[in-house]
């Protein structure tokens, strides 16, 4: 059965899939954006809380809120790969 | 804000932690114990307590000023806490803050019993609980203890209070009423948590753990006091359900023998935290040091839990406990300085972690 795997993979890759490549890439970017948003929800809430207590926390709050952006930036690469 | 919607522990947590970090530390206390009451008030004016000291400064002075400012500040902070919280978090914090309802109810009963004016009672309130201003003012204006019991109909204190009131009418002492209020509060703490099935590693589980620790410590304190004084009061009357250290009925045997009681605590899950304090207790004459050790242990315990599970109510509880300690510490310093205790004596009274 394992011998048949490469062949099967080829068949799957060659066949016309239900989702075109471009749409797949778009989905990937969109889902990554959702993930980023979810991560930022918690961090953003905490950051706003910290800034409300002491405005010196603004810089570090901003940095931490921006960290999940890496997710969407990496997902952006998909567009160029396709 | 309200009990609807989902909880927002991230926001509450970061605000609470910032405030927890801003509480007085050892350094501040070291300065405070060397000051007179006037200086303490001045010192407080330059910190967190500025607004309250300024607002009350014209009407009160000395220790009273400090005390009222402390109470008001406490109420403000805990109000904020409820303002921020949403959903389940709000419900849990509100449940815990009922502690101040018990305080207010007891203040009203004592005040009315001793014939204080409504205004005097009003200044002693800590307006941080569930009772609204309207009810509190009515309680303060009540003409008799019976009227207060009637006003408390429909609150959670309703159930135990009626029986206690009859006892009060027979004996004319307030103890049964106060006990009934305290017991009701502690027994309602665990409302809404299924103690049998909850998983220890979830936020609810940890919340339960802190509350159980608090109930257990309260039971330990009562048991030790009863045991030390050697009175023949029935310990079951003071027993609070919900803890995991004592079973109902077990207390009666243990109170009879001080050594057995200490041994029971030593072999329990709290043994490690209280080890040193228990050793001291066996030589020491007074329970005060041990009670302070209990307070410290509870603080450290809730702190530890708030680090293990940051996204839960634990950090809020640890802040509430720490803030209360701070208020009590400053009050102890102010009162101690007023009656002329020495620096060392006051330092013994402080609970600092």
In short:
Chain A is mainly α and 82 residues long.
Measured between the Cα atoms of the first and last residue of chain B, the distance is 31 Å
- Oligomeric state as shown: heterodimer
Beginning-to-end CA distance, first to last residue of chain A: 31 Å
- Percent of residues of chain B in beta strands? under 5%
Order of helices and strands of chain A: HHHH
Secondary-structure element pattern of chain B, one letter each: HHHHHHHHHHHHHHHHHHH
Sum up the overall morphology of chain A in one term. elongated
Stretches of chain A where pLDDT is under 50 for at least 5 consecutive residues are: none
Structural class of chain B: mainly alpha
Global mean pLDDT of chain B: 82
Radius of gyration of chain B, in Å, reads 20 Å
How many alpha or pi helices of chain A? Answer: 4
Q: Which chains make the largest contact? A: A-B, 12 and 11 residues
**Cα Rg of chain A:** 20 Å
Strand content of chain A: under 5%
How many β-strand stretches of chain B? 0
Q: Shape of chain B from CA axes?
A: globular
Q: Average pLDDT value of chain A? A: 87
Proportion of residues in helical segments of chain A:
over 70%
> How helix-rich are the residues of chain B, as a percent range?
55-70%
Secondary structure layout:
The complex is a heterodimer of chains A (82) and B (353).
Chain A: H1 4-14, H2 21-53, H3 58-66, H4 69-81
Helix pairs in contact in A: 2-3, 2-4
Chain B: H1 9-21, H2 26-32, H3 37-45, H4 50-56, H5 62-84, H6 87-97, H7 99-114, H8 118-124, H9 133-141, H10 145-151, H11 158-171, H12 175-189, H13 203-229, H14 250-256, H15 258-266, H16 271-283, H17 288-308, H18 314-338, H19 343-349
Please characterize this protein's 3D structure.
The complex is a heterodimer of chains A (82) and B (353). The longest helix of chain A is centred in the middle third of the chain and has 33 residues, at 21-53. Chain A has one domain (20-81). Chain A is elongated. The two termini of chain A are 31 Å apart. Chain A has 82 residues and is mainly alpha-helical. Chain A contains four helices and no strands. Chain A has helices at 4-14, 21-53, 58-66, 69-81. Chain B has 353 residues and is an all-alpha fold. Chain B has one domain (9-349). Chain B is built from 19 helices and no strands. In chain B, helix 3 (37-45) packs parallel to helix 5. The longest helix of chain B has 27 residues, at 203-229. The two termini of chain B are 31 Å apart. The mean pLDDT of chain B is 82. The A-B interface holds A 42-43, 45-50, 52-54, 57 and B 8, 10-15, 18-19, 22, 84.
